[in-house]
């Protein structure tokens, strides 16, 4: 290994040392994915009118 | 009628039109419990006891009673609309969560987490924008 080679690898090490540190931090709360919720927005939109009417008719429970 | 009266009437009409469904349930027991953060709306369309809160027996009883009545209504309307009871009750919750969660009270999101309304209610993803 010639002196040039040595200097190059030394430079690489030095550069690597300067690279910014990226910290990967786990969120403090568990990530919750609830796969039981399987409902499409189109269903909700389709029911909207019925929902509002039912709501209006039962103000004591909604 | 003076112009001032007319203006007042117009303002009143405008306020009524903008009101939409009344805020809160017409039930003093539940209303108090919701406002004081012991009971809240859930994304499944039913009421629940807020995490860490201990609603007294009379509030729990009223809540259970209303939940039973809701289930009856959801079941009937779901059948009428050809959807599952769960689809119907969750669609209902899209309206109830904003309607019955005043500032400072709590709601339970679609992941089962109780959240406090400090800067508005975040609706489940399947709810159309209010």
Notes on the structure:
The complex is a heterodimer of chains A (62) and B (130). Chain A has 2 helices and no strands. Chain A has helices at 3-18, 41-57. Chain A is rod-shaped. Chain B has helices at residues 3-19, 28-35, 57-81, 85-99; strands spanning 39-42, 47-49, 106-108, 114-116. The longest helix of chain B has 25 residues, at 57-81. Chain B is globular and about 35 Å long. Classes of the chains: A mainly alpha (62), B alpha+beta (130). Chain A binds chain B through residues 32-34, 37, 39-41, 43-48, 50-52, 54-56, 58-62, and chain B through 21-22, 25-27, 43, 66, 69-70, 73, 77, 80-81, 83, 86-88, 90-92, 94-96, 99-100, 110-113, 124-128.
What's the gist of this structure?
The complex is a heterodimer of chains A (62) and B (130). By secondary structure, chain A is mainly alpha-helical.
Annotate the secondary structure layout.
The complex is a heterodimer of chains A (62) and B (130).
Chain A: H1 3-18, H2 41-57
Chain B: H1 3-19, H2 28-35, E1 39-42, E2 47-49, H3 57-81, H4 85-99, E3 106-108, E4 114-116
Parallel strand pairs in B: 1-3
Antiparallel strand pairs in B: 1-2, 3-4
Q: Beta-strand percentage of chain B?
A: 5-15%
Report the oligomer.
heterodimer
Mean pLDDT of chain B: 89
Give the N-to-C terminal Cα separation of chain B. 38 Å
Q: Count all strands of chain A and give the number.
A: 0
Helix content of chain B: 40-55%
Structural Rg of chain A: 31 Å
The level of helicity of chain A is 40-55%
Task: For the record, give the distance between the C-alpha atoms at the N and C termini of chain A, rounded to a whole number.
Answer: 81 Å
Query: What is the residue-averaged pLDDT of chain A?
Result: 75
Q: Main sheet of chain B?
A: 4 strands, mixed
Number of helices of chain A: 2
The helix/strand order of chain B is HHEEHHEE
User: Using DSSP, what is the number of strands of chain B?
Assistant: 4
Largest sheet: spatial strand order of chain B: 2-1-3-4
Shape of chain B: globular
Identify low-pLDDT runs of chain A: none
Tell me the structural class of chain A: mainly alpha
Evaluate the radius of gyration of chain B: 17 Å
Low-confidence stretches of chain B: 13-19
**Helix/strand order of chain A, N-terminal first:** HH
